């Protein structure tokens, strides 16, 4: 089987230090599935992990994957050989930039029947991040009627996470306001279901006032948390909640949260997995819900760009595109043609 | 009527700048009640407010009060003349260090029938702070069975807030671990219902390990948040929640919250009131629940020290005792004898 690895931290201007190598197909144990990977997507998190020291070399990056179950560990109960599945896996395992991969069944969902491998690959990591933020952090109700009248602001609505978060929040009854600045990102965010798209080149407090809104219940930051920290506190209601998925560059004044008794969470989709939380199976449940909504035509996949073939050049080029921070929706790499019979 | 005011910020080593003065008894409007104050309690928040510039002078400090409704505004629906009530009011109004006071009915509870004025005065501010932290921040269930197996750590269990938070958390099914170091504070915290009392002179991670516990679901800090910031993150489970009521002295690294996706809230009991939140009536509801639990013998008042008479000397001495940070339970000042017929 083929994998794309790298031996050390590198920046993209050092050139392409990813390389292709052969490794043994592993055996699944206990709750593990062995998956033949059909398509993957590349996330900003991949580019951040590339810049942290590997615990083993070569390190295989990649989270999102779609594939077919080849064999199962002896404690597996949720899936069978031949099942088509999707997942974003775990940083504890080698990643999805390879033709076969192990994954814990509790982190896996059944692939939506009405999506291609490429379309399905766009969803797991961003869908799980959005689901955890909405249901675990904001604790919105699973009953859309109970969320009526609540408003969510998503900073950077057209990115991968913003795109699926908008759809899930709308389906669960929230009013959704996003930010974008280019014509194409504004249009994309509206297509995803945003009720209002603010121009983040202007001050968001003023932008929001133009729509007669002073404050929102929830703020979800998917871009430059330092820049928006004080603005988010200005924009959230008393006892509201702010979540970010973007690490800070600087220390911050937590006393600013006091006057409105604001709740702040640094959402990290792998917290449950890394700390082996008892409720890891939430990832299976969230993906199952996304599959159902996709099959009912409520959510749409967020893929906007597809590369053909698992090559080190494609992985390198994908990292370049992601680091440019202008990506709309999701970038997918398809493995199927070349490796269908490996 | 008599009030204890001060005209400027002062530290206690400048001497006693509180003074007694006469003012007109005000008229209640709309949702306001006019209350004849019978007893008050003094909180650490009073000493902090004393050190912020007054927006009007003389400024009357004081939050907690127990008293009797004298007259009501024309929109009042919850209370009548003659009702015995308790509350911790609002920083928007002049405080409770006076013989008559206005308060918004939505912030008020009926005084527990089985408590004296002094006993009842110990409860509102600390009870509301604890209720908001448990129900709004930690979002524990109102059904104790659903909280079974969840653990709360309270840093400084024997203080005013810690004492009532322990009782409420126990009544709602949580396991409660507190910290204390002196023999008398350990005993007090155990009397309040703590299952385990850790010695905060030692490192809390080690202290907790001695009880075979690695992590807890919720951490509530009522003492020196800077000192405990990293320790609280170490001690909380993945996707757990930390709340503090103590302002930071320094900026902090919010990225430390990421690995476990920890939620952090700066609890401030007056956020709803200051920002005129639509659900201000929560304070009435929380006090009503506390009254019921007190009358059922489930909670006990936390008063440990009573001063007699509303005098500037008593207010000054109370601030000295609070600033010493060794207070167990609550300090109450009784007004009843001197002013019953004013």
The total strand number of chain A stands at: 16
The assigned structural class of chain A equals: alpha/beta
This entry's quaternary arrangement is homodimer
**H/E element order of chain A:** EEEHEEEEEHHEHEHEHEHEEHHEHEH
CATH architectural type of the largest domain in chain A: Alpha-Beta Complex
On the 0 to 100 scale, the average pLDDT of chain A is 95
Low-confidence stretches of chain A: none
- Beta-strand percent range of chain A: 25-35%
CATH fold call of the largest domain in chain A: Quinone Oxidoreductase, Chain A, domain 1
Largest interface: A-B, 33 and 33 residues
Protein name (chains A, B): Zinc-type alcohol dehydrogenase-like protein
Subcellular location (chains A, B): Cytoplasm
Subunit structure (chains A, B): Homotetramer.
GO molecular function, one term (chains A, B): zinc ion binding
Summarize the structure in words:
Chains A, B: This is Zinc-type alcohol dehydrogenase-like protein. Chains A, B: Homotetramer. Chains A, B: GO terms for molecular function: oxidoreductase activity; RNA binding; zinc ion binding. Chains A, B: Its main location: cytoplasm. Chains A, B: It holds the Pfam family ADH_N. Two copies of one chain form a homodimer. Chain A is built from eleven helices and 16 strands. In chain A, strands 3, 5, 6, 7, 8, 15 and 16 form a seven-stranded mixed β-sheet that branches. Chain A has a six-stranded parallel β-sheet with strand order 11-10-9-12-13-14, sandwiched between helices. A three-stranded antiparallel β-sheet of chain A has the order 2-1-4, with no helix packed on it. In chain A, α3 (124-137) crosses α4 (160-171). The radius of gyration of chain A is 20 Å and the shape is globular. The first copy, chain A, folds into two domains: 2-123 and 280-339, Quinone Oxidoreductase, Chain A, domain 1 (Alpha-Beta Complex); 127-269, NAD(P)-binding Rossmann-like Domain (Rossmann fold, 3-Layer(aba) Sandwich), CATH 3.40.50. The model of chain A has no long low-confidence stretch (mean pLDDT 95). Chain A has helices at 44-50, 117-121, 124-137, 160-171, 183-192, 204-209, 225-235, 271-274, 282-295, 312-323, 336-339; strands at residues 2-6, 19-22, 32-42, 59-60, 65-72, 84-87, 100-104, 108-110, 151-155, 175-180, 196-199, 216-221, 236-244, 263-266, 303-308, 330-334. Chain A is of the alpha/beta class and 342 residues long. Chains A and B meet through α3, β13, β14 and α8 of A and α3, β13, β14 and α8 of B.
